[in-house]
Design brief:
The complex is a heterodimer of chains A (197) and B (146).
Chain A: H1 2-27, E1 41-42, H2 45-50, E2 58-67, E3 70-77, E4 82-88, E5 97-101, E6 108-110, E7 113-117, E8 124-132, E9 139-144, E10 151-154, E11 159-162, E12 170-176, E13 182-187
Antiparallel strand pairs in A: 1-2, 2-3, 3-4, 4-5, 6-8, 7-8, 8-11, 9-10, 9-12, 12-13
Chain B: H1 13-29, E1 38-41, E2 50-51, E3 54-55, E4 61-63, E5 71-74, E6 85-91, E7 94-100, E8 108-111, E9 125-130, E10 136-137, E11 142-145
Antiparallel strand pairs in B: 1-11, 2-3, 4-5, 5-8, 6-7, 6-9, 9-10
The chains are: A alpha+beta (197), B mainly beta (146).
Chain lengths: 197, 146
């Protein structure tokens, strides 16, 4: 009799644990991986409806993180395509910039805004911002064209953000690993090519 | 995929005139000869049309009909041809956008002037720069002439 009780209790414990894991997996908040292909808090239907994403064929939205007044989202289209977005934190409209990746997210999704202005015509970073989908990338840096040291920011919870970088002409935006090695590099600015017509 | 890119055609005559006037006024406000080049307003360009110093590629980008309220970018082909692009919005004093690098596989993105920090009071136009040193867009455009 005692053994049967123990078996029953053990079974209940295991079932509860499995249930909890499944629940966490659905919400994604307990994801152990740093990948942004999963995880995030699954927003309610009502919240998603407010974002008016139906025209994007998107019904599932996950809040990946919120920091420094910005919120980062993963959106899943009805066909399974993953999209990512960013916008003001707490905005009921959700992300105001969205990009989709049918083949899955790259290592770095750069939502940085680049600017040229009348007063400062050399291309510079107006806002450095993006998502990182690789545990290898720990910092993101703006490499100035004049050879001065890179202006870099840490990646925290898969996000990098620098709202107002120095307006120096940018040559590259690089991703670094924990040893400081360049993992990926995006060349910014003039290039030799023009599109074929 | 991208959409018919004739954003200029989305204007009514009145809207065009207003935009034209605003752009001309803005052009006057642009300081001539900033550093190594200058900004100048080049007028409307239609889909697929060339314009000195600027270039607009049919169906590369489209602005929403709701007064540039949104911008969608769809790549027609892969970007291995060496095209770099700055895609976003512009007003008379600045252009801002996201960067599309050579070989990058950005398929689509959407954004808005507000997302790029442009206030609602400014005239903004959809903007695409193919990086050859010239700017282009689908509405008014301000070309940086090196």
């Amino acid at each position: 009799m005692l053994n049967k009780r123990w078996i029953l209790v053990a079974g209940l414990v295991v079932a509860a644990a499995v249930g909890a894991l499944l629940a966490l997996d659905r919400s994604g908040t307990a994801s152990a991986t740093s990948s942004i292909a999963r995880g995030g808090t699954h927003l309610s239907r009502a919240a998603t409806a407010q974002m008016k994403l139906q025209r994007r064929d998107t019904s599932d939205v996950f809040l990946l993180s919120t920091a420094q007044g910005r919120s980062y989202y993963r959106l899943v289209r009805d066909d399974g395509t993953l999209c990512y977005g960013v916008g003001p934190a707490g905005s009921p409209k959700g992300p105001d910039t969205v990009e989709c990746f049918p083949d899955g997210p790259p290592a770095v999704i750069d939502f940085s805004v680049y600017e040229q202005s009348v007063t400062d015509p050399a291309i510079h970073v107006w806002r450095l911002e993006g998502l990182v989908n690789s545990g290898d990338v720990t910092r993101i840096g703006i490499v100035p064209a004049d050879g001065s040291p890179a202006i870099d920011v840490p990646v925290v919870n898969n996000v990098y953000y620098l709202p107002a970088p120095p307006q120096t002409q940018v040559a590259e935006v690089d991703a670094y690993n924990s040893q400081g090695a360049v993992v990926s590099s995006s060349k910014i600015g003039p290039g030799p090519a023009t599109p074929s017509r | 995929m991208a959409v018919q890119g004739n954003v200029a055609a989305g204007h009514s005559k009145g809207g065009r005139l207003a935009a034209l006037t605003a752009s001309m006024l803005a052009g006057l406000a642009v300081p001539a000869g900033a550093q190594a080049g200058q900004w100048g307003w080049s007028g409307f360009i239609g889909s697929g049309n060339d314009n000195p110093g600027c270039w607009w590629h049919h169906s590369v980008a489209v602005c929403g009909t709701n007064y540039w309220s949104s911008l969608k970018y769809g790549r027609k082909t892969n970007n291995s041809g060496g095209t770099k692009a700055l895609i976003g919005f512009e007003n008379p004093s600045a252009i801002r956008g996201l960067w599309v690098n050579t070989g990058q596989t950005r398929v689509s993105y959407s954004t808005s002037p507000a997302a790029l920090g442009f206030g609602t009071g400014n005239y903004t136009g959809c903007h695409v720069t193919w990086w050859s040193g010239a700017f282009m867009d689908g509405g008014t455009h301000y070309c940086w002439t090196p």
